[in-house]
Design goal:
The complex is a heterodimer. By secondary structure, chain A is of the alpha/beta class. Chain A contains 5 helices and 6 strands; from the N terminus they run E-H-E-H-E-H-E-H-E-E-H. Chain A starts with a strand and ends with a helix. Chain B folds into 2 domains: 67 residues; 121 residues. Classes of the chains: A alpha/beta, B mainly alpha. At the A-B interface, helix 2 and strand 3 of A face helix 1 and helix 3 of B.
């Protein structure tokens, strides 16, 4: 499996009384991530499944990413918490994107590549950034193919 | 929104079989068919409960609760498009013997239009009447689909003739309801 671990795009801070889960992307966040999606098009990158967290900023990011989707989009509560076996059991497909939040995405990558979520501090991911992993979606069974920082993707998408 | 649309479709499909079995059973079909439906219900219900208990349904419920309120101007624009689609699909009602699948497509389009009109606070009654008439045909369609799986369907000739009579009567009712609703739909469209 080629697994693309995608952090949600830039969201505005929570307003008074607003739940963190309800924070939407900013207009600039949407524009910037759209450029990243254009970069994915330039790279001929498509997904046969996109899994995403139910939090609004992840839903909106997945919605923008869906332009590169050739199969189903799946929302899962397993991406709104620390990575678990239940999440790995859900993943199906050959080119799969997961859209979620830090620090859990870093923990997921550390778990899949290093076999230990405690190494997550080495897996920093900016908003809109992407880790490309490949292998079996099981602890220590994947390798890092590429780190795609958001700024690099945006530059590529702006061309 | 593309994200969540697949999840809603998945949940609808997960619920559909139990719903269809219950609707067909409630219409009191012949005994052997009813017994077969009872046997089918337990695994269908089990699959539905499994789906309802999944992280996908949990995620979908939370995601829907976080979607900000809709924009009325955008909703009106989209409702116009829905009305246009309904007007186009409704031409099937003028046919003498329309296919059940085409009527089903029309029913789904009408349902979307009705809910959009209700959300906007507009008069949805004429459209609702067409939806109800087509809903009866939808139940017949579900019966035919389940009959296709029933091994002894060939022995239920009278029942199948009765179903076709319901199709003709439902078609007549839907056409009548559409004649009354057409003007209001055209008004929404323009």
């Amino acid at each position: 499996m080629n697994l693309f671990v995608v952090r949600h795009a830039y969201a505005r801070p929570a307003e008074r009384g607003e739940a963190d889960e309800a924070r939407p992307l900013t207009t600039k966040g949407k524009q910037r991530f759209s450029r990243e999606v254009r970069a994915m098009r330039a790279l001929d990158l498509t997904f046969d499944r996109i899994y995403h967290s139910p939090w609004l900023r992840a839903v909106q990011t997945a919605d923008l990413l869906a332009k590169r989707l050739e199969g189903d989009s799946v929302v899962t509560s397993n991406l709104a918490k620390a990575p678990s076996s239940a999440l790995l059991e859900e993943l199906e497909g050959e080119r799969v994107a997961v859209v979620g939040h830090q620090p859990w995405l870093g923990e997921l990558a550390a778990w899949l590549v290093n076999g230990d979520t405690l190494l997550a501090e080495n897996w920093k991911l900016g908003k809109g950034g992407v880790f490309w992993l490949s292998g079996e979606p099981a602890p220590s069974e994947m390798e890092l193919r590429a780190l795609m920082p958001p700024r690099w993707l945006r530059r590529l998408g702006a061309r | 929104m593309r994200a969540l649309a697949d999840d809603l479709r998945w949940l609808r499909n997960a619920a559909q079989r139990v719903r269809d079995i219950d609707v067909v059973t409630a219409a009191n079909p012949p005994e052997p068919f009813r017994c077969w439906l009872c046997d089918q219900r337990a695994p269908a219900r089990s699959a539905l409960l499994h789906a309802l208990d999944s992280p996908r349904t949990g995620g979908l419920t939370q995601a829907l609760s976080l979607i900000p309120p809709g924009d009325e101007a955008l909703a009106r624009k989209r409702t116009k498009a829905l009305a246009k689609r309904v007007a186009k699909l409704a031409t099937v009602l003028d046919e003498q013997e329309p296919e059940l699948d085409e009527l089903h497509r029309l029913r789904r389009a009408i349902r979307r239009l009705r809910y959009a009109l209700e959300w906007l606070g507009d008069d949805a009654k004429p459209v609702k009447r067409v939806q109800e008439a087509l809903g009866e045909l939808g139940d017949v369609r579900a019966t035919f689909e389940l009959l296709e799986e029933f091994p002894e369907a060939g022995d239920l000739g009278d029942f199948q003739r009765e179903l076709w009579a319901r199709v003709h009567s439902g078609h007549h009712k839907a056409r009548k309801a559409w004649r009354k609703a057409r003007t209001s739909v055209i008004k929404v469209r323009s």
